[in-house]
Amino acid sequence: MEWHGRIVESAIWKEPVEGRVAVRGVLVDGDEQADLRVHGGTDKAVYAYALEDYEWWSARLDRALEPGTFGENVTVAGFDPSDAVIGSRWRVGHTVLQVTEPRLPCFKLGMRMGDAAFVDDFAEAGRFGAYLSTGSPSASSGVPSAPPTRSSPSGSWPIPQCPSRGRTGRGAGSPGGDAERPGIARGWKW
After folding, report:
1. Residue 101 near residue 171, CB atoms below 8 Å
2. Which run of H or of E encompasses 54?
3. d(Cα 31, Cα 77) in Å, to the nearest integer?
4. How far from the centroid of its chain's Cα atoms is residue 73's Cα?
């Protein structure tokens, strides 16, 4: 796609699918990951976003938004992935997923929304969703319609308390000791 005068490769355009979907290694069957430097891969195999947040955005933007608009490959209802705890494990069907970090928006979300400024709106809203790694590859998983079975390690870090790293790396107000935090994504360790 062309965006601001350059060709950009992206897999942010997602469409809902019905039924169970297999998670294999770092991929959800039928999903694509375009730029593994910043999306997908081991620490970001699954991106979960809440249906309730879509309702909030639809009201705020005064237009309907369908699941998948924000690039997630799992849309959940009845709980908020933005309140997840880094390192917590979710059992969804037979698949174990581990929360690794919040989703910090990049320019591709602005491209998807047709508004470069939307990236800042998304960040200010704090409705990030959660990236998850796969804990049991080759397992079939259903999309949870209620909170998945969760466990959180001691010393874990709730997503709302994660510093906003923005585009420069280390965030202001970091609580420190991040390399020791259970389940935290490699890119968040400093």
Report:
1. no
2. helix 51-61
3. 20
4. 8
Calpha distance 37→20 (Å, rounded): 28
The 8-class DSSP code of residue 59 comes to: H
Count the Cβ atoms, other than its own, within 10 Å of residue 124: 9
The per-residue pLDDT string of the chain (190 residues; one tens digit each, 9 = 90 and over) reads: 888 888 888 888 888 888 888 888 788 888 888 877 777 888 888 999 999 999 999 999 999 999 999 999 889 999 888 888 888 888 877 788 889 889 888 899 999 999 999 999 999 999 999 999 886 443 444 444 445 555 555 556 667 666 554 433 333 344 445 555 556 666 655 4
SS3 for 122? helix
Report in angstroms the alpha-carbon separations of 37 from 42, 79, 110, 163.
11, 29, 18, 21
DSSP state of 174: -
Burial class (CB in 10 A: 0-12, 13-18, 19+), 91: middle
* Domain architecture of the chain: domains with CATH: 2-188 (2.40.33.20)
* Torsions phi, psi for 108 (to 5 deg): -65, -30
